[in-house]
Each structure stands twice: as C-alpha cells, then as structure tokens.
Amino acid sequence: MKSILENRQALTYAVNQAAEVAGYLWQKGWAERNGGNITLNITEFVDNGIKSLPAISDVKQIGATLPYLKGCYFYCKGTNKRMRDLARWPMEHGSVIRILDDCASYVIIADHPVMPTSELPAHLSVHNRLIEKGSPYKASLHTHPIELIAMTHCKKFLEKDVATNLLWSMIPETKAFCPRGLGIIPYELPSSVKLAEATIGQLEDYDVAMWEKHGVFAVDVDIMAAFDQVDVLNKSALIYIAAKNMGFEPDGMSQEQMQEMTRAFNLPK
C-alpha cells in the first residue's frame, strides 16, 4: 500500500516539518523518552483520495464533543512514541486521523494503526477553539523545555506575568517574537480535562501556555513557528540562569525600553 504522503506535496512538507522539529526537540533535551506531542490540522491538504481511505482502526472516543472539528483531519504523534524516532520515520511513529460526524470520535486512516498521544483530547480541544474563533493556527506543540520548567519550581514565577516580563527583559527578540508572552497554569494532572480547559483559557491571552512543573503548550500557523515561540522563551530563561550562575541578578531591559520595542515593532500592548 502506498504511503499517504506520496504525491501530496503540501501534506508531505507539513509532516516532514514535524519530523524536523521532533529532531530539534530531542537534540535540545526537551523530549526525553516519549515526552512531548505534536498535532497538525492537515484538513486543508486532504484530497478526495485521502477522504476515501478506509479506517484502519476501530472507532475511538475523544472524550469530548468538539463541534468545529467535524470532518477534520489531523496528523498526530503516536502514544509512547519517541520524538527521536518520529524525526526519522514520521509515518511509523505518528498517524493520520479523521474526526467523525458525531464530533466526539475518530478513526485512524493512515499509514499504520498508531494510537495518537494520550493528550489528544487537550490538543483537539485547543484546535476546536482555534477554528471556532477563526484563528489561522494549525499546529500545536507540547514539549519539556528544561530551563522554563525549572523556573516553575519557584513560586514567584507562577504569579501572573512575572515570568513573561522577566523573559521579555532578557533579550529584545523575545518581546518581538513572543509578544503576548507566557501564560501560567498551576499544576494539573497530565491529560486531564481540567488541564485542557486551562490551556484553552491561557491561549486566549498568551502565545504559549506553561504547565507548572511539566512543560509548555504552543500553537501557531505551522509546527516550526510553534517551536520558535518556545525556543525564544527558553533562550531568555537560559540567559537569566547564566547570569545567576555568574553570581549576579541580571538587570534586564527596563519597562521604558520594552515599551519602546512595543511601539517600534507595532506589537500587542
């Protein structure tokens, strides 16, 4: 049987980009064992040939009814699959799913019956909200950036916008490329409905949601852009930690300097 990616250039590009990002996550140490997840809304790339593919799994329940996902297609990293393996073989360590008409269930259609991530309900709930509000964002990323997670073990960084303002102040690019900042979610059980709901809420106001003592959740137009959001935030965390390790509290950019950045680059206030 031919791969779903054969002769489908745009879809191939999106999945290969996911594989490239998976490799970066592993290289950075953000994807230990099977840690982290990638989910792509690939509906716009789906042709009649893909739509006609039969299910290769039983019907699976999402655990929520998501009305804006009716008839949508997603590429999902597989549960218990490693990012380092997905980087090399994306269709052996991920799969394509079709959301069914009840908006509460799905089937796997390609290439292999690889079960999607256990955090699929959270990812799909976020995508449902993105479609509902007309967002152009099609990619969601969950990963474990070491320095950002370390910061959540300090209570002061869990206060509203404290981490965001600190990270913005470390280097101008962080404010420029992550202009809405980092929303903080107090610890919730991984894969729980409460965590999914909290993530949706934080992404209304922030570019990236930080799960206390766990990891981050980012969305953007494609998976590389979502990765970039996390990368710039973690670079700022690294600068902060490097200064602390040198024995001093970094000054950071002043509020006036950051306001100047906001005006100069026409960033959200």
Topology:
Elements (H helix, E strand, L loop, with lengths): L8 H19 L9 E5 L6 H4 L8 E2 L11 E5 L5 H4 L7 E6 L5 E6 L9 H13 L6 E5 L2 H6 L10 H9 L1 H6 L4 E4 L7 H11 L4 E4 L3 E6 L2 H23 L9 H10 L5
Helix pairs in contact: 4-8, 6-9
Give a summary of the structure in a few sentences:
Helices cover 39% and strands 16% of the residues. The chain is of the alpha+beta class and 269 residues long.
Walkthrough of the structure:
- The chain has 269 residues and is of the alpha+beta class.
- The protein has two domains: 1-139, Class II aldolase/adducin N-terminal domain (L-fuculose-1-phosphate Aldolase), CATH 3.40.225; 144-268, Class II aldolase/adducin N-terminal domain (L-fuculose-1-phosphate Aldolase, 3-Layer(aba) Sandwich).
- Helix content is 39%, strand content 16%.
- It contains ten helices and nine strands.
- Strands 2-5-4-3-1-6-9-8-7 form a nine-stranded mixed beta sheet, sandwiched between helices.
- A hairpin with a 5-residue loop joins strand 4 (94-99) and strand 5 (105-110).
- The chain is elongated, with a radius of gyration of 19 Å.
- The N and C termini lie far apart (52 Å).
- Residues 16-241 form the Class II aldolase/adducin N-terminal domain.
Give keywords.
alpha+beta, 269 residues, 16% strand, elongated, 2 domains, L-fuculose-1-phosphate Aldolase
Helix content: 25-40%
What is the name of the CATH class of the largest domain?
Alpha Beta
Task: List SSEs in N-to-C order.
Answer: HEHEEHEEHEHHHEHEEHH
The count of DSSP E runs of length 2 or more, i.e. the number of strands, is: 9
CATH superfamily (homologous) name of the largest domain: Class II aldolase/adducin N-terminal domain
